[in-house]
Write a structure and sequence with these properties.
two-stranded parallel ribbon, 401 residues, 15 helices, 10 strands, eight-stranded parallel barrel, alpha/beta, binds manganese (II) ion
Length: 401
């Protein structure tokens, strides 16, 4: 099956950065933008310039330095927003203005207090103004998945006519189910007469833990851009996680034949950099980048992985840039303890292995994780005790490394 290109739009620096605990200063944003470029994303949404002078400055610096990925800036469909975004993006090699307006009746009536007609007029003016700065204009219909379908189709057609080259239909509140969002995108693409003139995009939130599943369902319904973030950070429960989307298309190419330009060996490093910059840890069991994502502690699992990794691993840790995988703990088997000792340079006799193994399990009752230093200390202690108790045993070799 021939693969289709899937565009990766990273919004870690915008949707991610605006969530509590994840704010970054200009230097930090620039550092992360460099790593996103090394990771190979297609588009870096660098900020929302009208929000603050700092945001505008950061967008300008990212636009001035980053080469390769498109640099995008967010703007409401209002003249001042778009002007600010356009100015901030001036130094960019490739610039995208991402302009948005809410389209659901709930948002129009309660939040914006405008009519549907006013909404259409504002988005037409906004998209046209944005096209004055760049040919690459994305339009988003905020709360699209809760918008009346007839009106949404009108919105999309109007935006494309006004010059939008990408149309993003966000599940702003993370309310959709996968089957539903697939039907939603199929319906819009089938009903809007000029739909073939724009790339459709999904922006899914994780309020029900469905952001990645929904994004992939949208892709299967013809969407060719997904908006996502490193570690899945973002408003409330966050956005679709970039690393999960990318690895799903790698590991399940048979069902998801979509190519991205992401260098997966940079995924773990990017995740760690974000954690370091924001001081917000990733949950241990987070898919792909969590500390336990490739950790096998149960004895049967460790034994299996040592014999053939495919028994419990559907992807290789090195594919995402991770080195070590076996964590010693109280569920570890003798085999894993032996392997770890070998990695540390200790060749153990059967007798020594028995004693080291028991000591590891005992220690694991007292502390959750056992690191290399603990293992080395145990081996040394046992060898010292042994030497004191009896003359040198021929098979008790010294560390080889
Ligand atoms: Mn969002």
């Amino acid at each position: 099956m021939a693969s289709e290109r899937l565009i990766i739009f990273d919004t870690t620096l915008r949707d991610g950065e605006q969530s509590p605990g994840f704010s970054m200063n200009t230097d930090e944003k620039l550092t992360l933008a460099r790593q996103l470029a090394a990771l190979g994303v297609d588009i870096i949404e660098a900020g929302f310039p009208i929000a603050s002078d700092d945001d505008a400055h950061a967008v300008k610096l990212v636009a001035g330095e980053i080469r390769g990925p498109v640099v995008a800036a967010l703007a409401r469909c209002s003249p001042a927003d778009i002007e600010r975004a356009g100015e901030s993006l001036k130094p960019a090699e490739r610039a995208r203005i991402h302009t948005f307006i809410a389209t659901s009746d709930l948002h129009l009536e309660r939040k914006l207090r405008i009519t549907r007609e006013q909404c259409l007029a504002a988005l037409t003016a906004g998209v046209r103004q944005a096209r004055g700065y760049t040919d690459d204009v994305e339009f988003s219909a905020e709360d699209a998945t809760r918008t009346d379908m007839d009106f949404l189709c009108q919105v999309v057609e109007t935006a494309i006519d006004a010059g939008a080259t990408t149309v993003n239909l966000p599940d702003t509140v993370g309310y959709c189910t996968p089957e539903e969002i697939g039907e939603f995108f199929s319906a819009v693409r089938a009903r809007v007469p000029n739909a073939d003139r724009a790339v459709f995009s999904a922006h899914c939130h994780d309020d029900l833990g469905l952001a990645v599943a929904n994004s992939l369902a949208a892709v299967q319904a013809g969407v060719r851009q997904v908006e996502c973030t490193i570690n899945g950070i973002g408003e409330r429960a966050g956005n679709a996680s970039l690393e999960e989307l990318v690895m799903a298309t790698r590991v399940r190419r048979d069902r998801l034949p979509y190519e991205t330009t992401v260098r997966t060996a940079e995924l773990f490093r990017t995740s760690q950099l974000l954690t370091t910059l924001t001081n917000e840890p990733v949950q241990a069991n987070k898919a792909i980048v969590g500390r336990n994502a490739f950790a096998h502690e149960a004895g049967i699992h460790q034994d299996g992985v040592i014999k053939d990794r495919r028994t419990y691993e559907i992807m290789r840790p090195e594919d995402i840039g991770v080195e070590s995988t076996l964590v010693l703990g109280k569920h570890s088997g003798r085999h894993a303890v032996k392997r770890r000792c070998e990695q540390l340079g200790f060749e153990l006799s059967r007798y020594e292995l028995d004693r080291v193994y028991r000591a590891v399990i005992e220690l694991a009752d007292r502390q959750k994780q056992i690191d290399d230093g603990d293992v080395a200390a145990i081996v040394e202690r046992i060898r010292t005790e042994q030497d004191a108790a009896a003359p040198a045993r021929p098979e008790a070799a010294a560390p080889t490394a």
